[in-house]
Fold this sequence. Notes:
Number of helices of chain A: 11
Largest sheet of chain A: none
Order of helices and strands of chain A: HHHHHHHHHHH
Shape of chain A: flat
Structural class of chain A: mainly alpha
Largest interface: A-B, 66 and 67 residues
Distance between the termini of chain A: 96 Å
Helix content of chain A: 55-70%
Oligomer: homodimer
Number of strands of chain A: 0
Strand content of chain A: under 5%
Amino acid sequence: MAADTPQPWRDIEGLPEPPWRVARKPSSRAPLTRQAIVDAALRVLDSDGMDGLSMRRVGEELGAGAASIYWHVRNKDELLQLVFERVMEEAELPPPDPSRWQEQLGTLAVQMRAILNRHRDVARISLGRAPTGPTVAVFTEWMFTLLKPVGIPDKVIAYLGDLFGLYVGAFAFEESLGGEVLDIQGQPPEQFLEMIKDYMRSLPEDRFPYTRQAADLIFAGDRDDRYAFGVDLMIRGLQTFATEPPA
Amino acid sequence: MAADTPQPWRDIEGLPEPPWRVARKPSSRAPLTRQAIVDAALRVLDSDGMDGLSMRRVGEELGAGAASIYWHVRNKDELLQLVFERVMEEAELPPPDPSRWQEQLGTLAVQMRAILNRHRDVARISLGRAPTGPTVAVFTEWMFTLLKPVGIPDKVIAYLGDLFGLYVGAFAFEESLGGEVLDIQGQPPEQFLEMIKDYMRSLPEDRFPYTRQAADLIFAGDRDDRYAFGVDLMIRGLQTFATEPPA
DNA sequence: CGTGTTGTCAAACACCGTTCGAGAGACTCG
DNA sequence: CGAGTCTCTCGAACGGTGTTTGACAACACG
């Protein structure tokens, strides 16, 4: 190539780039921030569920490459933690009223479950995780303000947070599976359940009298009912620690 | 485990296999059986943990190819279910004695947790799963025999199994993570915990009096202590359903 | 003998989380 | 005005994953 030959017509300085070669639309994409990434991840989670939540998919949702995410977030696990904390902030705590502590605790339990169920598969993230930010402080203070006046010992209140979170998370997790673990055969869950019931009823009467009789009861009740039972049992247990008589 | 301890009520010999678990075929003389695969999977799980448990790895353990496994097992999830059920059969139930129901229930809880912790990461499998074979029948019957004489309503007993399993599983699951979720920063878990405590103590005194004071309490107590608390709370709650006075 | 049936498995498929290194763009300093 | 540095993006690649496919071997039965 004769590089030294003057070729002014070959000068491309200032010429517009042909549209088919523009690298990317300059500013159509929102800036990539931690915030935006968490938003996108939550959006993907809500629509595609946990199995659809891949780094590549989150990148796509942002109109960005998967690798870019790693500049803002250590790894997928940290991203999940952020999504979890963000969702937990949706919880609203009423002003604590010790005279109705059982009711308020029950309501909170219902609300937490609702939040975990509102965002698909968030319950799967929640397990073994706890909020670490200001949220946990607000919760703790709320619990103490509600339960200390009833006479429940500090240690019990302190441990209760864990237990409470564990139950709500585990229950919602089970729900999020939606019996998908149950179809170990090709059958739909309910049909499979019917099989188990039949199996139970077919057991020898002399050794399994109760089980035979309770086969229906064991699988009866909707999710709400069973959830409420667990919450109720915990509250009843708590009650035995209270020194102040219930209002 | 004392495998030689006589447990006639636990004997599942001669009980019919539930129809959904019948093996594909007796298989004349093959090195690869369902049984052998489950064994191998459990061996891999014990030594390499959940992350190391891949179909290829199980195949290798058997001196076979990964694809071969799919002849005997529908997919990985079914394999996990089988491993879970196998481990659950390690539980030993004492002869139910209603006069000591609280104690026996507590002991069972401790034992279940021990089993889940004995086999590395089995707790991770257990969540959202329940045994579906004869084991669940034996458990159910045991529960009823123990609790019905105390006057606890059938429905409560029926629901209790779920709740019990949920708590044990969720707790052991959390343990199996071993705080690995906590090192969202590079720090080791305990150091990170100290940070949270410091954070709590630094909160404004007027809005977070209890939290400031209870910062230590919240993270105090070893796992055993916290586990026992949850079990105790459930048993206390159960007690309120009993009509027969405690012995 | 042929013809199924049962069981094995290498190769391929379509993903995954994560790392690397080249680069673009914006800022600061001499 | 460079030159340098720092922030940020991302294509390509690495080493895995669960699962499917199709070819193939070993045996059973008529």
